[in-house]
């Protein structure tokens, strides 16, 4: 990205989302790659349906901007960002399945199992998850092998049984046995927090940051993850379905415990202010360079969709 | 393994299966690992149910013996073998789901979605798939980063949209539109062939084999993959459910096209002889050292379960 003409945060955000979208479209071509036998047409179409959906691409943005903090940018970083988005998209496809959250719509479009069928949706999710590791490990991603291995290790831990997938399991269990506050915090840290934390951590890994810097970015990622979930829970209470692009009021209807349900809207707004202040403090040592990431923290905390 | 006392093929096979099973049990402990937040009890139990099921562990065995051809053995190789088995087990859990092959039993035990529920089975599969990459990338797997990256890349290509997952999609489509012979060959090369080919290729990668050696092992893996599928199709026609440990006669009942259905049992037996001869020829340059792998080819081709 050209630094000579400063872009507004929104422009920067949408521009990078478009770059991620374009790269994902290339990676999800129907042409088989070296080592692959063939790419079945319907399965690729289902993967594209689930991944090329005009999402906000928040996680890739956090990764790209975190890496830029350490002067790392270019095609390889974009590829890691796209890999991360593959993991996020796989999780949405599987979460939407009838056996899970049973959602028919996502971003105003039929979910993958509605547009195709359940079996195809399961396989499309599996294939996007697998593709994520393929992309990072690929020769075309020009990063040192040691960096790739660190990224793959951290990503797998963030996404697997001890992270996102485990969090979804806890979320499903929470429909039967209401979790207490500590359990909700843990559930959310796993289900949505882990991948957002990884996004920021990955920037530090790619940028060969010092241990202290990496810890700052990880803590920043945790704050953003908390803010993201709180804002989401708030929106479920306060916003209209039209604006958010998915059904709202679902948590309350499902009797789902959220921190907003425990402590109320005002408390949540104060927490968000606190998290934004914390994010600013964590990145203070980086000075002006961290401006975009701090704006991202505000965007995540105060977004209306 | 101690080379001073030569073991029978069967002993060697079962001994290594036991080692893989033990390592999988350790890897699927409920204790969270570095970078993980918590491991939900039920999800770990479902993963264990799907992975610690006394399977033959053929793919790990092929990987271990292929690596041994290049004098590579030890804990790191065993870990890669266990990672490969995680991928195989994830695919069985997802294939058994109601939306896919809808199987209630596997190896005489309830399938994961029967023992738990569908959502948990989906997440257990997702988590085993993710864990496979975690294991290979982990610091505890003491291999050079360049080797790990090659392994992860080849494994992801073998398992994803252009390999195993794509093959399962083609298999599901084959229930609606009957595939021709060429399509069956491609489907099987993807669905079962790709992972078996990877097992042999991985041994060459870990053992830093020359390009020519790696090609021989890859071709050997392809021959084993073909033999495995042909033997499976034969067993579906000729064996009893009791012996195979799963329902037989299913392919014919489903009107599923197999090469055995096209060409008959005698043709299939001759093909298997040809594949075993081909396997022997491919490994001839390795001399006596390749004895176990050649025995494995015979076992795969002529097995009765």
TrEMBL record, chains A, B:
The keyword Transferase is assigned to this record: yes
One Pfam family named in its UniProt record: polyprenyl_synt
Domain of life: Bacteria
PROSITE patterns for the chain: POLYPRENYL_SYNTHASE_1, POLYPRENYL_SYNTHASE_2
Cofactor: Mg(2+)
UniProt entry keywords in alphabetical sequence: Isoprene biosynthesis, Magnesium, Metal-binding, Transferase
UniProt xrefs under CDD domains: Trans_IPPS_HT
NCBIfam families documented for this protein: FPPsyn (NF045485)
Family recorded in the similarity comment: Belongs to the FPP/GGPP synthase family.
Protein name according to UniProt: Polyprenyl synthetase family protein
Organism expressing this protein natively: Chelativorans composti
